[in-house]
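Following up on my earlier message about adenine. Here are the inputs again, as you asked, copied directly from the submission form:
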Amino acid sequence: MKIEILTIFPGMLAGPFGESMLKRAVERGLVQIERIDLRSFARGRHRQVDDAPYGGGSGMVFKPEPLFEAVETLQQRGGDMRARVILLTPQGRTFDQEMALELSREKRLLLLCTRYEGVDERVRETLVDDEISIGDYILTGGELAAAVVVDAVVRLLPGFLEEGSLLEESHSGSLLEYPQYTRPPEFRGMAVPPVLLSGDHARIARWRREQSLRRTWRRRPDLLRRAKLTPEERLFLEKLADEQRLS
Ligand code: ADE
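Thanks, got it. Here's what our run produced:
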């Protein structure tokens, strides 16, 4: 996969891809990540990329010319491999695991980072395939959002994770993770649940699934609507609801 990120602050994105597992993914050739300075596509002595909004108001708006110039040049450079063009913006569709999976199947992504005040509407209308928000809060710009999207997408690329861990993730559906423990078996008077030390894999799997259900029911009941549950698991949730009513 190739990911190009268009930004006026390429330095902001040096950190996330220069460390840890993303760095290794790049080194292993799973993904090519290129940071491209939008200003190099701007004209004039000052290479201006933004301007005051028509109609007045505060803040600056990203001009269409540098963005069009950049995207068209990069698309041409890519030849047959057209990039899916994504604008990071708080007005976009909220990013989730399903979108990460969908994007991980693309050959080429082009992420556009602008400042939060906005971008000329003609860019949204004709240059961009998708608009993505990483959550209902306002960042100073799209760079950190792009880093989040890249991280979530790259870890889904074949060969990135240990075999089996993605399968486990998809089996858990949209439930929250069960509690995890490691050595020592007792720490400051807090013991690891005995079932995890029992060696009984079927019991452990059942316990974990129940813990996931409990945790999701308590913290993120909205996720249960989408979860794939067996009739027994539905019954278990009803039991939890009854218990709460009685307490
Ligand atoms: N730019 C500013 N805020 C953002 C957000 N929440 N998601 C994506 N891009 C952004």
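One observation from looking it over: Residues 2-154 form a domain with the Alpha/beta knot fold (CATH 3.40.1280.10). Hope that helps, and feel free to reply on this thread.
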